[in-house]
Predict the structure.
Amino acid sequence: MADFQIAPSILSADFARLGEEVSQVLASGADIVHFDVMDNHYVPNLTIGPQVCEALINHGITAPIDIHLMVKPVDRIIPDFAAAGATYITFHPEASEQVDRSLQLIRDEGCKSGLVFNPATSLDYLEWVIDKVDMVLLMSVNPGFAGQTFIPATLEKLRQARAIIDASGRDIRLEVDGGVKVDNIGETAKAGADTFVAGSAIFGAGQSSDPNSYDTVIGAMRQELSNARNH
């Protein structure tokens, strides 16, 4: 399995201090910057666009940027995020008229591509496009809002996705997003995840009065991941 990577979701950050907060979580040991891009159409919320991605890069952020598109249709916005500096671009198969074409478009734009599966979405899509997938993202909440509770059935789905990825022999990351925190991150790792999106669990801690809170929560997550790998 690939190295474990922690991907704080900026949806839970303080947008008035975004560059500073992202710099701080990366300095505290996070690996990837996760964007939740929502259009108030595919999901009932409206968030951020490519300009925010470009602004963080201009601020000096060099970590990989992971763009999760909760938009419909997806193809129009893919080149904009690629141009803004995205590393990964993932989308929901239900939001694309042609899933294979959208995946190829992401790769043609020079980014790594991925599919996102809602709690009730079958993994069957992977059978036909796994040769074009660099990341599989399983939602452990229904997408749209930060701060939701982890759906336990995701653990079995992670095991199924891990089996599919391992059988393919391909270098594909398995990401989990939604309600991930210190007390369940180990379970998701044991079920097969290697990339962990955490929003409120990380940024919520950082907005406390403790100047070392990012170090504390990310360090605790790393310890749980280490325990999971060793058992």
